[in-house]
Design a protein that fits this description.
The chain is α+β, with helices and mostly antiparallel strands. The chain has two domains: 292 residues, Probable tRNA modification gtpase trme, domain 1 (Gyrase A, domain 2, 2-Layer Sandwich); 83 residues, Beta Barrel (Elongation Factor Tu (Ef-tu), domain 3). The chain has eight helices and 20 strands. Strands 1-9-5-8-7-6 form a six-stranded mixed beta sheet, covered by helices on one side. It has a six-stranded mixed beta sheet with strand order 11-12-13-10-4-14. Strands 15-18-17-16-19-20 form a six-stranded antiparallel beta barrel. The chain is globular and about 60 Å long. The protein starts with a strand and ends in an 18-residue tail after the last strand.
């Protein structure tokens, strides 16, 4: 048995680290809105939130994904190890593809979600929001694998929007033209591009060594000059991801490691991810607990998409049945500029959202001239995504 684990320790040498693209975003920054993403200084707004959103939906946007926690997992037992770790069947994933996945603790509660990049049966990269090396070490017992955290070694950019493919082709990456959604390709020995993203739009993610960050940024920026390229922060991206119905750990659900109370952690079925659970696998972490919860009807929550009357922001609002019985909470909400609706993602207590879907109301407090007014707005359960764009799956992609 061979278990090698390496973790970069520079994360704790200063309060907030700067990504390889920090200086580039700083030059575009006019608002000065930064936030802490996994110990890195990341932009929430670069210049104007509204313009940044419309860059995602109308032209091309650049978002710094370098703070994503990245693990390189290699070795002869890598596929078997990942099949034990995650709830999807890694053996069915093709080489040079990306798979959205989840992993759970022994009680079947979600530890985190992320994207799994498969180079071949013995080489993968797992990207996620939180650091999980101790859990990976425990899970890898008996497997011949090597796990390297490469967060500080690999930079990343997300380029999203209808002109994103045209920008990449202008920049010399013509080989992305035949990439289908969730496929990836090495455009050089060092640069990997995947047709993935968090916006529900045509888009790509670029992974590269830190030393190439300046050259790649300058190349993309020049290639996108006439295609509306714009640096964006998280706030604009957040609107787009809500429109698509994508969830964020410790925002739309609490991971089991962060849950202070036992009843706060959620199983995959309780966060809208039942489709991902592959019960045909012989074993994976949490399988028995998930199966038991299904057989005994022990799941207590359901995750839903809502349309809400009016335009008032509803983030964090309480959901009521018949205006008096508290039945859930909104985890993320926004006014959708594309759908022209107030939309939200929410957790409801069963049987609400499953057997009882009508007569739902949202309690919103609106500040007017330094005084809060309570408003009760009707909410309707709908099927996500709120915004569905055909160009997301079009191959070859749009070039305009």
């Amino acid at each position: 048995m061979k278990n090698n684990f390496k973790e970069n320790k520079n994360n704790f040498k200063q309060p907030l680290l700067k990504t390889p693209f920090y200086e580039m975003f700083s030059k575009e920054m006019t608002q000065g809105y930064w936030y802490d993403w996994s110990g890195y200084k990341a932009a929430s707004i670069v210049q104007d939130q509204e313009l940044e959103y419309f860059a995602i939906r109308s032209t091309a946007s650049l978002f710094d994904i370098s703070p994503l926690i990245k693990y390189r997992i290699t070795g002869p037992d890598t596929e078997d190890f990942l099949n034990k770790l995650t709830i999807r069947n890694v053996g069915q994933q093709k080489n040079n593809t990306v798979q959205y996945t989840i992993w759970c603790d022994d009680e079947g509660n979600v530890l985190d979600d992320g994207t799994l990049f498969k180079f071949n049966n013995t080489s993968f990269r797992l990207c996620c929001q939180e650091r999980h090396l101790p859990w990976f070490i425990d899970t890898s017992s008996g497997f011949n694998v090597e796990i390297l955290e490469e967060t500080n070694l690999i930079a990343g950019l997300s380029i999203q929007g209808p002109t994103s493919a045209a920008v990449l082709i202008n920049a010399g990456y013509q080989s992305i033209d035949q990439l289908k959604p969730f496929e990836m390709i090495k455009v050089t020995d060092d640069i990997l591009i995947s047709r993935t993203g968090f916006t529900g739009d045509l888009g790509y993610e670029i992974f590269l060594p830190n030393k190439l960050s300046t050259a790649v940024w300058n190349n993309l920026w020049k290639a996108g000059e006439d295609l509306g390229i714009r640096a964006i922060g998280f706030n604009a991206l957040n609107i787009a991801r809500i429109e698509t119905g994508f969830i964020i750990a410790n925002s739309d659900f609490i991971t089991s490691e962060h849950a202070v109370r036992n009843n706060r952690a959620k199983k995959p079925d309780e966060i809208g991810m039942s489709w991902m659970v592959d019960m045909t696998k012989q074993y994976f972490n949490g399988k028995a607990a998930i199966q038991k919860a299904r057989e005994n009807n022990e799941n207590k929550f359901i995750f839903v998409a809502l349309e809400i009357d009016g335009k008032e922001p509803a983030d964090g609002a309480i959901i009521y049945h018949n205006k008096d019985l508290e039945v859930g909470i909104i985890t993320a909400a926004t006014w959708s500029p594309t759908a022209k609706k107030s939309i939200a993602l929410a957790t409801l207590k069963l049987p609400y959202g499953q057997k009882i879907k009508s007569n739902l109301w949202v309690e919103i407090y609106v500040l007017r001239e330094l005084e809060y007014f309570k408003m009760m707005k009707k909410a309707f359960i709908v099927k996500a995504p709120f915004v569905k764009l055909s160009r997301r799956n079009l191959t070859p992609p749009l070039r305009k």
